[in-house]
Design goal:
Layout: H1 4-8, E1 16-22, E2 30-38, E3 41-47, H2 53-57, E4 60-61, E5 65-69, E6 71-76, H3 93-104, H4 109-125, E7 128-135, H5 141-146, E8 151-158, H6 167-180, E9 187-193, H7 201-214, E10 218-222, H8 226-234, H9 238-245, H10 258-264, E11 272-276, H11 284-291, E12 294-297, H12 299-305, H13 312-318, E13 321-324, H14 344-354, H15 360-366, H16 369-374, E14 392-396, H17 404-409, E15 417-420, E16 423-426
């Protein structure tokens, strides 16, 4: 695996990569296929025989592998990687919130930075090439960005309830921190007002306005638990009582669902990622679709909390773009003594087990094409197509095209190679 500094200085990408199978995702798989790359981008994808003799002579033959787009992780908390296995599945969602707030208070910036780097390394070796990460400590970002070749969108987390800070000051500080970040073609930042229950309506409104004005993406945890739904829909319940005891103004509760709450604040739009969206009122799916918002589902975290069934059918029937994220290791339960790992293939398998009637190719789109669309990078990431960035991964494969998507979904090991922007992040073995 290449270090980030070596990545920036690595040799020019090979012009042509040959594989037993190429799975572009946005089109059917290609047996004995090849991907032609120029600089950072793909210029052609097709059957090996379609390329000229001169191109084939200079090609890199990767052998018995399937080449596919690098995975797009649309929601992650890299800072929390070191909390793996610290918490058991809670009886109530608010119990977990209390525990993680307490745990965060015991860690130093150096520990969070080490956790971030560890999580990024996990994602890289398990096929993610782009991650949308929630960042609670933006001061860590310049060094963190340098530590990995991953393509990253860092969403700066904001709350404002406990600190009692003015929303305008919170937004201004976030904007200044984003402006101070190093400019890089595959690193950017956005805003993440944490959740409806941990923010004020004014902070949500100002966040939406700032993101639209500056063309940032924006993401929020929303409608994650029945407790949150009951708080906003009916102004009652465990979360409502807990936050009222902590002096949260409850005048925004009892006015409709959490999704409707965000809509009133102006957050729902084409630049918005609604994380979780497990608990919807009638009309919420149509509302999300009408505004062009995307929804990020985190299957293993969803299971950890025992949330109500994810409304995938209702969302997709309404036309909502649904994609996948890993969430954090603080909300995953170890299985059979296996170490916990940030791994989008594990999320794909978890989703497939719960949705056995959905075709493997459609499931794969959730972590590729759909994730790219949610991040405003449709046609540039998540598919192997001309003009897309040369972000791709290779997995061992000896089958034919008929079974390739099922094999990808069930892949359980590290990738054999990873390329980001035309450079090897994990070089293939010669």
């Amino acid at each position: 695996m290449t270090a980030a500094s070596d990545y920036q200085l690595s040799t020019k990408s090979p012009q042509l990569l040959r594989a037993r199978c190429v799975a572009p995702v946005s089109r059917p798989p290609i047996a004995d296929g090849a991907v032609k790359i120029s600089g950072q981008r793909i210029v052609a994808v097709g059957a090996w025989r379609q390329f000229s003799a001169a191109e084939r002579q200079r090609a890199t033959d990767l052998g018995d592998v399937v080449l596919l787009p690098g995975l797009v992780n649309a929601h992650c908390h890299l800072d929390y990687t070191g909390m793996a296995g610290e918490f058991v599945p809670p009886r109530h969602f608010t119990d977990w919130l209390k525990l993680i707030v307490a745990a965060k208070g015991t860690r130093s910036d150096a520990e969070f930075a080490a956790d971030w780097r560890c999580g990024a390394a996990m994602l890289l070796r398990t096929g993610t090439t782009t991650v949308a990460d929630i960042e609670a400590l933006p001061q860590l970002l310049p060094a963190a960005w340098e530590a990995t070749p991953l393509r990253i969108i860092s969403f700066l987390e904001m709350t404002g309830i406990k600190a009692r800070r003015a929303p305008q000051a919170i937004i201004q500080e976030a904007a200044e921190k984003i402006a101070a970040l190093p400019k890089n073609f595959h690193r950017r930042a956005g805003l993440s007002p944490h959740a409806p229950y941990s923010t004020t309506p004014e902070l949500l409104r100002r966040s939406a306005q700032a993101a639209r004005r500056r063309r940032w993406r924006i993401t929020t945890h929303v409608a994650e638990s029945p407790e949150e739904f009951e708080m906003f829909m009916h102004a009652r319940g465990r979360m409502f009582d807990w936050l009222r005891l902590n002096d949260r103004n409850a005048s925004d509760c009892g006015l409709g669902s959490p999704i409707q709450h965000l809509d009133r604040a102006g957050l729902l739009g084409k630049n918005f990622l609604a994380v979780h969206a497990n608990c919807l009122a009638p009309g919420d799916a149509a509302r999300l679709a009408r505004r062009g918002a995307s929804v990020v589902h985190c299957p293993r975290s969803h299971s950890f909390f025992g949330h109500p069934k994810f409304p995938f059918a209702a969302l997709t029937a309404a036309g909502v773009n649904v994609c996948l994220g890993t969430d954090s290791l603080a909300s995953l339960e170890p299985k059979r003594k296996q170490p916990l790992e940030l791994n989008l293939f594990s999320e794909l398998r978890s989703f497939a087990r719960k949705n056995p009637r959905i075709a493997a190719r459609a499931i794969l789109r959730l972590a590729t094409v759909n994730g790219a669309r949610a991040l405003g990078l449709a046609g540039k990431l998540g598919e192997l197509t001309p003009r897309a960035y040369a972000d791709l991964i290779a997995l061992p494969y000896t089958g034919d095209t008929a079974g390739v998507h099922d094999a990808i979904i069930n892949h359980g090991r590290a990738v054999t190679a990873s390329m980001i922007g035309g450079h090897w992040a994990i070089a293939p073995k010669s």
